[in-house]
Design goal:
Layout lengths: L12 E3 L5 H9 L5 E3 L6 H8 L4 E4 L7 H6 L5 E4 L9 H6 L4 E2 L6 H16 L2 H9 L17 E5 L3 H12 L3 E5 L11 E2 L3 H7 L2 E4 L13 H6 L5 E4 L8 H9 L5 E4 L23 E3 L8 H21 L19 E9 L4 H11 L4 E8 L3 E9 L3 H9 L4 E7 L1
Parallel strand pairs: 1-2, 1-3, 3-4, 4-5, 6-7, 6-9, 7-8, 9-10, 10-11, 11-12
Antiparallel strand pairs: 13-15, 13-16, 14-15
The structure holds nicotinamide-adenine-dinucleotide and 3-phosphoglyceric acid (3PG).
């Protein structure tokens, strides 16, 4: 008799880095009960073991999914980044194995923008120093180097989801906003785009970084860029730790060239809350240090948990890949009364005709077919009568250039 439902208890979901309970609830509500949950990231050795029989993995910014890890993940079907950044995942290694990667591109953007706005005010008022004096019994009551943000210049590097929201919030406080981006971006309110990074650095009272980690943003801010900032200006980085050469920043702060900094992300971050945090910025009382919590609010984490688990569940149940960051995007209708075959192959000429040939040679009637490709990979979805799905899957496996195929009941 044809199988009509998948045994979801056999599908292992590996959740790392304390992703929100909303993700666990989402999986369970859809019948996925085999969930291995870890409140922090795993060492590489533990990760290799845990992922070896996992079908889905959910992680945040700390876990590195390298080529080596993918090579050990023999059953992996999809990856969920429960955050914005996907730089911790080797997206090409995933793609070459037919593994889509999903993320949550918007859910924590407001949280980051709010934090940066607050830090802008704190830095302009010299609060880090005043706060630390009070904590040791001092009393630094003074207006020296303490300014309103109204009328001051905020320079935003990277005017995407976070940068543009920050722009609106900062303007509501009367700040003049300028931004630098490699793409021409529509200005929010009265903000204006500048032509070069140098132009922004030389004018802004506060510079805030909101670029993704890319080869082109790696070590984007070195002592050269810092030296171009106005004396007494402040730097905020809540993007990625590899964007700023942290030793150079420490020097610029110690020399007094910069007035202060607020740093949320670091080239080296501890694996969990029990590990020591080491940075040359420790002990500088004009610096706000936060443990990569720009997006860590209850609202953001709950929303991210729901959003990414939904994307993984939709892919698992129905094959839909919309909003995958590395994979051909296919939005699929439900498939009542049919079985659905998913076929992922290298994107070379002739695969579609071969698929249709093997299906027709096996006498399989196709009731729906969907295709999308990107540069490297093609993704074909075929709906067939239930009685034929096993035979069709075997036939599809014979197609040359197949990376993987599976059936949804
Ligand atoms: N601290 C945290 O907890 C936290 C939370 C969320 C996101 N982030 C980080 O913030 C980054 C930005 O988030 P987003 O949602 O605004 O991303 P986004 O993709 O919406 O925007 C990024 C912008 O940077 C621009 N850009 C790319 N390269 C550039 C360059 N060399 N110079 C100038 N501009 C450049 C892009 O054109 C884009 O407009 C994420 O990639 C992530 O790494 C950190
Ligand atoms: O990319 C992101 O969304 C942020 O860096 C947040 O990462 P986290 O989930 O590890 O806090």
């Amino acid at each position: 008799m044809a199988k009509t439902s998948l045994d979801k208890s056999k599908i292992k979901i590996l959740l790392l880095e304390g992703v929100h309970q909303s993700a666990v609830d989402g999986f369970k509500a859809h019948g996925y009960t085999n969930i291995e949950y870890h409140p922090k990231s795993l060492s590489e050795a533990d990760l290799l073991e845990a992922i070896s029989d996992a079908h889905f993995v959910g992680l945040r910014s700390r876990t590195q999914l390298t080529e080596k890890v993918f090579a050990a993940a023999h059953k992996l079907v999809a990856v969920g980044c429960f955050c914005i950044g996907t730089n911790q995942v080797d997206l090409d290694a995933a793609l070459s194995r037919g593994i889509p990667v999903f993320n949550a591109p918007y859910s924590n953007t407001r949280s980051v923008a709010e934090l940066v706005l607050a830090e802008t005010i704190m830095l302009m008022r010299g609060i880090p120093h005043k706060n630390s004096r009070c904590h040791v019994g001092g009393w630094a009551k003074s207006a020296k180097n303490s300014y309103e943000v109204r009328g001051k210049k905020l320079g935003i590097i990277g005017y995407g989801s976070i940068g543009s929201q920050l722009s609106v919030l900062a303007e509501s406080l009367g700040m003049e906003v300028m931004y630098y981006d490699v793409v021409t971006k529509l200005a929010m309110g009265n903000a204006h785009q500048v032509d070069s990074l140098d132009e922004l650095l030389s004018q802004a009272d506060v510079v805030s970084l909101h670029v993704p980690e890319l080869p082109t943003t790696k070590w984007m801010i070195t002592k050269d860029e810092l030296s171009k900032m106005k004396p007494g200006a402040h730097l905020i980085n809540a993007s990625r730790g590899t964007v700023v050469v942290i030793e150079d920043l420490a020097e610029a702060l110690k020399s007094g060239h910069l007035g202060g900094a607020a740093i949320d992300v670091f080239p080296k971050e501890p694996r969990g809350n029990d590990d020591e945090f080491v940075t040359p910025l420790r002990g500088l009382d004009n610096v706000i240090l936060t443990p990569h919590i720009g997006g860590s609010t209850m609202e953001a984490q709950e929303n991210i948990g729901k959003e990414v688990s939904e994307k993984l569940i939709r892919y698992s149940d129905n094959g839909t890949t919309t909003f995958a960051v590395n994979f051909p995007e296919v939005a699929l209708p439900s498939h009542p009364d049919k079985h659905r075959l998913l076929h992922i192959h290298q994107n070379v000429p002739g695969v579609m005709s071969e698929i249709n040939r093997v299906l027709s040679e096996n006498g399989i009637n196709v009731s729906g077919q969907y295709l999308q490709t990107n540069k490297a990979v093609g993704y074909v979805v075929v709906d067939v009568d239930k009685a034929y799905s096993h035979q069709a899957l075997e036939a599809l496996k014979e197609v040359q250039a197949t990376i993987r195929s599976r059936v949804l009941f």
